[in-house]
């Protein structure tokens, strides 16, 4: 995990059966999660970006 008060990022490396599908998963954000990148063992990459996030229930 890296970052500061304004932004952060964490790189997750699976160690079980999920490692056959994903090399790593990177999640980053600030007050909220802003993006998630899934790097697959097949070299495909899926990126999710989150916009217009509102806090509350």
From TrEMBL:
Hydrolase among keywords: yes
From which domain of life does this come? Bacteria
Name under which the protein is recorded: Flagellum-specific ATP synthase
**GO MF term set:** hydrolase activity
- Which keywords appear in this protein's UniProt record, sorted alphabetically? Hydrolase
Q: What is its EC number?
A: 3.6.3.14
Q: What is the lineage of its organism?
A: Bacteria, Pseudomonadati, Campylobacterota, Epsilonproteobacteria, Campylobacterales
């Amino acid at each position: 995990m890296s970052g500061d008060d304004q932004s952060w990022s964490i790189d997750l490396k699976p160690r079980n059966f999920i490692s056959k599908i994903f090399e790593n998963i990177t999640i980053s954000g600030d007050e909220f999660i802003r993006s998630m990148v899934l790097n697959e063992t097949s070299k495909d990459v899926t990126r999710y970006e989150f916009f217009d996030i509102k806090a509350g229930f």
